[in-house]
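Hello forum,

I keep getting stuck at the same step: I have a sequence, I want structure tokens, and every attempt I make locally crashes halfway through. Rather than fight my setup again tonight, could one of you with a working pipeline run this one for me? It's a single chain of 109 residues.
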Amino acid sequence: MVFADAALRRVLEVIDGRRSAAHMYPLLAAGLAESVLSARAAAAVRGGPATLQRVRARPAGSAEPATAVEAFGTYRRGRRTHALACRIERVAATGPESTAWQIVALHIG
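Reply #2:
Ran it on my machine without issues. Output:
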């Protein structure tokens, strides 16, 4: 799923300070943005930028078309490999599209 890869990459870039937080707000549910920003200070202590390595996505549930997806993957920071996972759901959107994908749960290890 292209959205999962792009969204997780953008979140890691915000945590590293390579992107402004405004880039991730449309991608995350309301409460998640603050928790990602709190991880920003801890990332400054760790060495090197985070590099997304692999992302896999699986439908969550049996709805057709899929309304929820669980994505998981790995990223590297320096010489260490870490895991991350998220749940992505279709939510109501404004504009020409009536729905959009959004991360509603996120865990970064």
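The chain has two helices and four strands. If your local run keeps crashing, start a new thread with the error log.
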